[in-house]
Every structure is written in C-alpha cells, then in structure tokens.
Design brief:
This is Fat storage-inducing transmembrane protein 2. GO terms for molecular function: coenzyme A diphosphatase activity. It is built from nine helices and two strands. It has about 220 residues and is mainly α. It has one domain. Strands 1-2 form a two-stranded antiparallel ribbon. It is elongated and about 65 Å long. It starts with a helix and ends in a 17-residue tail after the last helix.
C-alpha cells in the first residue's frame, strides 16, 4: 500500500483501461466486493462446520456469526468514511451547498477527506478470507464421513474463494497505483488491519466473546 501510494503521488503510472473506474473488475467485482466475499465464505463456513459438527445448527450458527461481525464492521466503517467525507467537504462550483448528495445532483464535485473505502474493503476481504479458509486444511485431514460426501462442493468453494483472494490483491495494487492520496489509502489500510487483528486475534482467539469461536476450533 505504501509503495503503491508513493508511486501514485511521485511517479505517476500512465493511464490504462484498469485506471478507469468503470473497468469491468471495478464495476462488477470491487463495487460489490463484500457481497462476493460474504457469499463464498458463507459456502465455505457452512460446509466446513457441517463436516465437523453434522446437524449441530447451533454450532454452525456460532461459526457463521464471524461473518456477521465482519459484515457489521464493513458497514459501520464505510458509513463512517462517508460521514467524514461529508463533514470535511465543500462543494466545488457552489460552496453554498452543504450536502454531498445535492452537490452531485446539481452536477458539481464534492471535495472532502475521502478515506479509501477501496483499500479498506479489499484488505478487509483479503484478511477475512485468509482466516476463514484455513479450516479447509483441517477438513482434508479429518477423514470424516461428511467430508467424503461434500468434498466436491468444498473443493469448488475453496478454489473460487482462493481465486477471489487473488483478484482482491490485484485490485488492491491497482487502487494504490491509480486512486486516492497516500494518507487516504494508508488510513483505510490501517483500519482494515485493526479490524482484522481486533476480531480474529483478540476477540475470537482470546475467547473474549464466548459465543463466537476461533476459526481453528472447528469442533466447537
């Protein structure tokens, strides 16, 4: 993030199709990035928890609750980013307008401190995927009855999720090279890392919230 940001500010990369915000990857993937991540991780989590605790809906719900927390974090942070941009912004072209929505509706530009939602989202998605798919390697060692039956679905979900992770990492590089300022991107990245560490390496790992287990405690 830091290297790409400095390249963007001090050694601009020539424009290309990928630097256009309307490129297919940005429009159909990044713009709804959490939807893609949530959908595939839902499949991985449900299949994995079913293998380890077949028929135990309470246990499955406990594992799935991690995705609920991640979704809530995504929603709250992005909402805060939008508010910060609104609070710190002015309407370029008609400064009397104090609403970003009205400013855009009248054809003007709103300029405020725009924390990089893309940086936050892509890192948040990548770190969440990295944590959640670790359970799959335990499934391959388990030799359980349900794993043998569900293996094709599990492998398919894993491959699709891994491919999505690669895409998010590639889009993060492009975001750093072409969009936002250094401070906006670094702040977005730090918030994503803070969220990941605070949940997976503190709340879950230290059992601060007993109801929500760590991903690597699949039998709970």
């Amino acid at each position: 993030v830091i290297a790409g940001s400095f390249l963007h500010d001090f050694l601009p990369i020539p424009s290309s199709y990928l630097s256009n915000k309307r490129n297919v990857f940005n429009v159909y993937f990044v713009k709804i990035g959490w939807g893609w991540t949530w959908g595939l991780l839902t499949a991985v989590t449900i299949l994995a928890s079913w293998v380890h605790t077949p028929g135990n809906l309470v246990s499955m719900l406990r594992h799935y609750s991690r995705l609920f927390v991640a979704t809530l974090a995504w929603f709250l942070w992005v909402s805060l980013f939008e508010q910060i941009e609104h609070w710190t912004g002015v309407c370029k072209g008609q400064s009397s307008l104090d609403s970003k929505y009205v400013c855009h509706k009248k054809g003007f530009l709103w300029r405020g401190f725009d924390i990089s939602g893309h940086c936050f989202l892509l890192i948040h998605c990548a770190l969440t995927i990295s944590e959640e798919i670790q359970v799959v390697r335990h499934l391959t060692m388990s030799g359980k009855y349900w794993y043998k039956i569900l293996r094709p679905l599990i492998v398919t979900a894993f491959i699709c999720t891994a491919a999505l992770l690669v895409l998010w990492e590639a889009m993060l590089v492009l975001t750093c090279l072409y969009f936002h300022t250094v401070y906006q991107k670094i702040l977005g990245a730090l918030i994503a890392i803070f969220t990941w560490f605070g949940t997976y390496h503190y709340l879950y790992k230290e059992n601060v919230i007993p109801f929500i287990p760590c991903p690597l405690k699949p039998d709970i």
